[in-house]
């Protein structure tokens, strides 16, 4: 049995991840953490986020799945790594210092972890297509447009930033990012990044390659958070048989 703990278990993603974990015959939900404690989820009563260290020590999960907020996730990663617990981190919106803090904690704890801004399998294919298009269409103007629900706190999305990183990695000339546009300014060599927020949009990412006389759009649309949640649960199962280290979702999907 894979013993799973979930941080952010009361949230939109945490709720869906716990439903999927509870339905897996080879998984057991052993702990859940959130700012508001006490709710019963399957066999566990949600623990207060501040008790994560003592609860991890007591229940010894195999994997902690985190969908919370950036500073919360950094604390959770440190607690999990210090207790030898593997991690699946789906939270987005980290700054560079927070990314380094997590990587250092994972290395020091000598545990296996996946940090990914998007756990859908489709998005891994989308990223692969972007790299190919960027290589073949060098010189075309590139714009990334993402759309999400009106409760999303970070912008641009983690996936949009990952798309920019992948595109940049495939181009000979590394362009700067320009977030939105306002006022009088001609487009330069940049990648434009635009965030749309509204209603209950689950997660759309479009990359436009605009060339002379033609254009290509590569688009991924998530219809349900189950695309992310089921990928995160698969990642938890996969991590159990991996050596210690920091992995990405493409390490798992493209194996
Ligand atoms: N990688 C991926 O595939 C995906 C990533 N995401 C990302 O996941 C994150 C969560 O998204 P979503 O579920 O929509 O957000 P929600 O706000 O619905 O859920 C986050 C939950 O975490 C709780 N929380 C805050 N701090 C802590 C803490 N220290 N310990 C435990 N729980 C805590 C929040 O409590 P409270 O509400 O009281 O603040 C809330 O219940 C975001 O960063 C989002 O961008 C989302 C979808 C897919
Ligand atoms: O907050 C969300 O909802 C999502 N966040 C992720 C991101 O920032 O890329 C992934 C997904 O698009 C949904």
> How would a crystallographer describe the biggest sheet?
7 strands, parallel
Computed over alpha carbons, the radius of gyration is 19 Å
Euclidean distance between termini CA atoms: 23 Å
Mean of residue pLDDT values? 97
In CATH terms, what is the architecture of the largest domain? 3-Layer(aba) Sandwich
Strand order of the largest sheet: 5-2-1-6-7-8-14
The domain tally reads 2
Number of helices: 8
Task: Pick out the low-confidence regions.
Answer: none
C-alpha geometry: elongated
CATH class label of the largest domain: Alpha Beta
Key features of this structure:
27% strand, alpha/beta, binds NADPH dihydro-nicotinamide-adenine-dinucleotide phosphate, single chain, NAD(P)-bd_dom_sf, 255 residues, binds the ligand O=C(O)C1=N[C@H](C(=O)O)C[C@H](O)C1, Dihydrodipicolinate Reductase, domain 2, 7-stranded parallel β-sheet, Rossmann fold
What does this structure look like?
The protein has 255 residues and is of the alpha/beta class. It has two domains: 2-119 and 226-253, Rossmann fold; 121-222, Dihydrodipicolinate Reductase, domain 2, CATH 3.30.360.10. The protein is 37% helix and 27% strand. The protein has eight helices and 14 strands. The strands form three sheets. It has a seven-stranded parallel beta sheet with strand order 5-2-1-6-7-8-14, sandwiched between helices. It has a five-stranded mixed beta sheet with strand order 10-11-9-12-13, with helices on one face. β1, α1 (12-22) and β2 (27-34) form a beta-alpha-beta unit. It starts with a strand and ends with a helix. The mean pLDDT is 97. The structure holds NADPH dihydro-nicotinamide-adenine-dinucleotide phosphate and ligand LZUJQKHR. NADPH dihydro-nicotinamide-adenine-dinucleotide phosphate (NDP) is lined by residues 7-8, 10-14, 33-36, 49, 67-69, 72, 90-93, 116-119, 154, 228.
